[in-house]
Amino acid sequence: MTLDRTISSAPDLRQDLPEPHFDAETGGYEDTSSLVDDVSALFSDGKSYAKAELAFQKSRASYVADRSKGASVFGLGALIALHLALIALTIGLLLGLTEELGPWLATLIVFGLFAIIAGIMAMMLKSRLSEISSAMSDKNA
Questions:
Q1: Does residue 90 contact residue 110 with C-beta atoms inside 8 Å?
Q2: Sheet strands (E) in the chain
Q3: Phi/psi of residue 21, each to 5°?
Q4: Are 140 and 130 a contacting pair, CB within 8 Å?
Q5: Distance CA 22, CA 5 (A)
Q6: Does the predicted TM-score (pTM) go above 0.70?
Q7: Which residue in 12, 71, 98, 128 has the most C-beta neighbors within 10 A?
Q8: Residue 94 burial class via C-beta count within 10 angstroms: exposed 0-12, middle 13-18, buried 19 and up
Q9: Nearest in space to 2 (alpha carbons), one of 52, 62, 48, 71
Q10: Contacts of 40-49 spanning 24+ positions with Cβ under 8 A
Q11: End-to-end distance of the chain based on CA atoms, in angstroms?
């Protein structure tokens, strides 16, 4: 779905304008519309513009929603691939260290490494959550 279809389907606002009257004496066009006609045409044009703008914004929202679905699928695929890569890294670390240090020590080292990473990330999470909590508390209001 493209946005061009909505723009091309917008109503022609010139259709409500009165035909100009040519005055032969002055050699120019005479405005035969009244103030009421002008205000009515302005109101009609405003309604047409609002309808066209609403249709355009609806089509934009539909387009974004459609594209967001596809983007979320690719994002999920990237996260799955990253997870599998981290599993492969873990297994590679275990196999590489097992030959040098033995299976129990290699497992302990890999576990300790990931435990340290998890601890650092948990502290960062706690910090961010406390910032959010303090921003939302009534004490700062």
A1: yes
A2: 21-23, 28-30
A3: -100, 125
A4: no
A5: 37
A6: no
A7: 98
A8: middle
A9: 62
A10: 41/16, 41/17, 44/16, 45/13, 45/16, 48/10, 48/11, 48/13, 49/13
A11: 45
Residue bearing tokens 């097992």:
98
In the structure encoding, which two tokens stand for residue 51, read together?
């309808």
Predicted confidence (pLDDT) per residue in 37-96, tens digit: 888 888 989 999 999 999 999 999 898 888 898 899 999 999 999 999 999 999 999 999
- Is residue 1 over pLDDT 50? no
Hey, what are 99's tokens? 């030959």
Per-residue tokens: 110: 């890999």
90 close to 114: Cβ distance less than 8 angstroms: yes
Which amino acid, 63? Y
Q: Which residues of 40-63 are buried (b: 16+ CB within 10 A; e: fewer)?
A: eeeeeeeebeeebeebeeebeeee
Torsion on CA atoms 124, 126, 127, 131, rounded to nearest 10 = 140
In total, the chain counts a number of residues equal to 141
